[in-house]
Each structure stands twice: as structure tokens, then as C-alpha cells.
Amino acid sequence: MIRFFRSSSVRLALGYAGLFIASSLLLVGLLWWQTASYLDRETDAVILANTRAIGDRFRDFGLAGALETIRDRVANGDKEAIYLLVNPAFEPLAGNLSAWPREVGFATGWSDAEMLSNGQAHATRLLNVSLPGGFHLLIGRDVEDRAQVRTLILNGLAWAILASLVLAVLGGVVTRRALSARVDLISRTTAAIVQGDLGQRVPEGGSADEFDQLSRTINQMLEQIQNLLEGVRNVSNAVAHDLRTPLAEARARLESVLRREPSQEVAAGIEQAIDDIDRLIGMSNALLRLAEIDSGVRRSGFQQVRLAEIVGEVVELYQPTAAENGVEIRTQMDTHHTVNGDPFLIAQAIGNLVDNAIKYAPVGSRIEIGIASPTEDFVEITVGDKGPGIPDIEKVRATERFYRGDSSRGKAGVGLGLSVVASVAKLHAGALILADNHPGLAASLQFPKKTTMASLHQDSQLVSL
Questions:
Q1: What's the CATH fold of domain 197-294?
Q2: Domain residue ranges in the chain
């Protein structure tokens, strides 16, 4: 219900209903006031006319003339008229009332009272006037019809308010469904784009309404963004692809020269040049790998992967490097966790995290790798070290391509390692989370436990940056 009433369409429908009810109240209130005022004026005018007529007869012909007039009016007048003439002791002399009504009292002037007529209480309008000699004249009219008209107006207003509320809720439901269907189309499209499918477009309904105008604007924006991204991506991919062959040839020539046993100084320069070329080749491979991941083609190789086996293989691969750097690797894993994914890409992502941890971990420290399930929906692999870590202000940009923080200066690498890890996590509908390890960095790869992907194995190469 809270989500229902948070809907803009429901609030809009209820707002219009409130406006309709307020305007209806104003209109019906004005109608009621005008009608009641008219009926009251007409009733009071009739009572005053009757009072003057009888009073004039009393002054002109005395008590006998007034009594004769009242008897004639009661015998021949309308049934809604009320007449009563009493003596100074308020004893009835003439009229259609058997006694002076207690509801009226003895004070002169106008009054409203409920009086019995044929066994039923009727609303009446009465005027009490004093006549010479202490006599009192009570003239009135039965105004039950006027009260019924007022009741009908009030009942009609109440039913109108209820109908307005029902129609507002129904209109809100219908409008909400219609709007939600269009909004869901946009949401699903944008969600697919966030997952990397830049070819998705918001469908148009063909009605040329505001949603179609919005869809066209969004699609034009997406088209422009896709063109820009494809242009940048194609340039970087082309450069990376074209560099691999000349770099490999240059490396081979340098190794050929090195085999001729040059002087020690020349050999050192050649080895340094080979290391630099290896870095460039690694960067090219990483860029091509990122292009392959971003394209989504690797989803065809998804299968059930035992994370403990992948982590064990990565640790075995990096154990010698860690020993050379004086760093110990320890694992603490729940061995039963499996995810649907590409085993080679997951291994590469974990390898990149372990490689970074070895680079930045101080001598004599320990790298801890764990597999756990913090929630029912996700399983995460955490690699923690005791190095300098990443400041909070840099964590947001740490996964950007070629970005290197202050702590990375002087270390080997080109700034693509975490970019590859983040892309692998995104491909698997997961996430890369960077947190403080107090001290050091705790990098966590989160994967969803339930995914529906195709199962087709593809070979891949483990690249460490």
C-alpha cells in the first residue's frame, strides 16, 4: 500500500479527486444555501402575511373577527399552515393545535420546533405575536418538505464524494498500470545498457505522446553515446591489436641480439628493453581482453565453477612469486560454493587481485584469501593485504582504465588490473568492492549465486597485470 500511494499516477488521481470533491462541496454548498435561503424567505413571507391578516381582523372586528378568520382558514386553508389563538392564560380559543406547544415557549418572535403530525415528528417554522388584551397568536408552517430537500442534497453530496473517491482510486490504479508499463520498458532498457548492452533502445508506443517523445530523446542520446564509446573502443582495440605484432618482432630481435653475448652494459639495456616491451604486450593483451569482456561474447563459455578450485590454482601459481617477495599467502575458504561463470576469467580476476596484493604487501606480511557468503544471494572472494591500501578518495576511480594512484607510483603495471577485475565482475552480474583492511586493502569479488547463462566452454589465457 505504501508503494501504491507513492505512485505519481495515484497521487495525481487522488489530487484530482480532492479537487473535484472540494469543487463539488463548494457547488453543492452554494446550491444548498441558495435553496434553503429561498425556501426560508418564502416560508417566512407566508407566515408574516397570515399573521398580518389575522392581526388586522382582530383590530378591526375584535376577537370575534379573528376567531372567524382562523376557523375559515383552518377549514379551507392548506394543510401545512399552523394557526392557534390563545387567551392571556394560553388556553386555546381557535386553531388547528389542541394546546400551546411547549417547544415554542412563551416568548414572542420566531422559533423552529419539531411537532407531531399524524404521529410523525415534522419540522415547523413558527411566529409568536402578542395581540391587544393579552391574547397570543401563533402562526406557522410545516417545513418538513424543506428539511427533506436538505437531506436529499446532503445525501447526494455524500454519495458524490464516495463515488469520487472510488473513481479516483480506480483511475489511479488504471493510470498507474499504464504508466508503470511504459516506465518498466524504459527501466528494463536502461538496466540492459548498464549491463553493457549498448545496442538496446527504448521501444516507442506509436501514439506520439509524451512517453514517445521521451523515448525518442533517450534513444538519440543512447545512439550518440554508443557511437562515441564505439569510436574510442575501436581506436584503443585497433591500436592494441596493431601493436602486438611489431612489439613481438622487436622483442624477438632483441632476444636474438642478446644471444650473441654482447657486453654486460649492452645486455642490461637489452633486458630492460625486453621488460618494457613485455609491459606493452601485456597492456595490449589487457585492452583486447577488456574489449572481449565488454562485448559479452565470453558469456557463451559460462559453466558451473567451483570457486575453491579456482582460488587453489591461482594460489599455487603465485606462491613462488610471493615467496620471492617475502610474503605469505593464507587461504580460508568454504569449499562448497559454486557460481555460473567463465572459469578462466574468474581465475584472471582473482590472479590480478593476488598479483596486486603481492606487489604492495610489505616483506614479512601475510596475504589472506577467503571465500564466504555474506548474504543468501551472493558469494564473495576477498583478497586482503597489509600494504598501503587505497585512500577513500581514490577508490571510486581505482577501476578506471590506466588510472594509477599515488601509492602505485614506482610499481610495475599500467593501471588495467582492477579494470579487468571490475569488467569480469560486471560480466557475471557481480561487483568489485574495495575496502580498508586496517591496514592495507581488502578487495572483494562478489558473484550472484543464481544466474541463468549458456554453458559453452572456451579457452582463455590467464593474464596478470
A1: Helix Hairpins (1.10.287)
A2: 26-151, 197-294, 296-448
296-448 architecture in CATH?
Answer: 2-Layer Sandwich (3.30)
**Secondary-structure class of domain 26-151 per CATH:** alpha beta
**Sequential DSSP letters for 30-55:** HHHHHHHHHHHHHHHHHHHHHHHHHH
Residue 71 DSSP one-character state: H
Q: Rounded to an integer, what distance in angstroms lies between the CA atom of residue 436 and that of residue 314? A: 23
275-280: Cβ within 8 A, 24+ apart:
277/247, 277/250, 277/251, 278/251, 279/412, 279/414, 280/243, 280/247
Rounded to whole angstroms, the Cα distance separating 16 from 440 reads 58
Whole-structure pTM value? 0.45
List, for residues 281-312, the tens digit of each pLDDT value.
665 665 566 665 665 555 556 788 888 888 88
pLDDT computed for residue 249 by the predictor = 75
Nearest-angstrom CA–CA distance, 392 and 394:
5
Give dist(CA 420, CA 422) in Å, integer: 5
How far apart are the C-alpha atoms of 407 and 279, rounded to whole Å? 19
Residues 389 and 436: beta-carbon distance below 8 Å: yes
